[in-house]
Design brief:
Helices cover 34% and strands 25% of the residues. The chain is an alpha/beta fold and 239 residues long. It is globular, with a radius of gyration of 21 Å.
Length: 239
């Protein structure tokens, strides 16, 4: 016959046995984050100390569904629902580094998605403005950022094609979805000497990651690399 005291002791033993494994899981993510830096980022040209520091401090596992957490530090895009993805770590780091950000820069992100890219930017600049057209994703991103006590990201639910005129001009704009052409509204909202990075090309095809710079009111652009991104989602009420 099992006594009540025996059950109580058994329960405590189970708790004590679980605690080391829970700690191991947390340490495992930390180790995976370090390996991400050493194996996926640094060898491929990510040298910016600010970018590496941000990538090493933000927990990518917090921005993916539970079923995807075991793959959080694989260097690949992962589904986050609503037909959208979280970009591979290298691409997040590469796009971030390419903008050469300063702490005082005003930065606009188009396509909040999971909130991961905005979280990375939040470690590097004073305030991040980000727009997401898919309401459930925006709400989830807001909650994730809140859970991590990230308070310098401002999220707007809306059509990113039109930018955020009220907060413009921006020193940098990062577009995390593929467009078939460069949105002129975003170009107009770039400050003098502002930079924009955006994937351009046909949907369901290979795009070019483009870096644009505004100088004396004119835009100069160059292709950085071929990429694949989910399409830019538009509000159907607009042309």
């Amino acid at each position: 016959m099992i006594m009540k005291d025996d059950l109580l002791w058994a329960s405590w033993i189970c708790v004590l046995l679980l605690l080391p494994f829970q700690g191991l899981a947390q340490d495992n993510y930390s180790e995976q984050r370090k390996r991400m830096l050493e194996e996926h980022l640094k060898p491929r040209g990510i040298t910016s100390k600010a970018t590496l520091s941000a990538m090493g401090s933000i927990p990518r596992e917090a921005f993916v569904p539970d079923s995807k957490k075991p793959f959080a530090y694989d260097d690949r895009a992962l589904s986050i629902g609503e037909g959208q993805t979280i970009s591979q770590p290298f691409m997040v780091a590469y796009m971030t580094q390419a903008l050469h950000l300063k702490t005082s820069d005003r930065v606009l992100e188009i396509g909040t998605g999971s909130g991961y890219q905005a979280a990375i930017l939040s470690q590097m600049i004073d305030t991040v403005f980000t727009i997401e057209i898919i309401k459930p994703l925006a709400q989830q991103a807001i909650q994730r950022l809140k859970n991590l006590n990230i308070a310098n990201v401002v999220v707007k639910i809306g059509d990113g094609y039109y930018g955020w005129k009220e907060k413009a001009p921006f020193d940098a704009i990062i577009v995390t979805a593929g467009a078939e052409s460069i949105p002129l509204y975003l170009v107009e909202q770039l400050a003098e000497n502002g930079r924009m990075i955006i994937p351009i090309g046909p949907h369901r095809g290979v795009r070019q990651l483009m870096l644009l710079k505004k100088k004396n009111g004119k835009i100069k652009s160059r292709a950085l690399m071929p990429v694949r991104f989910v399409p830019f989602v538009r509000d159907k009420q607009y042309p």
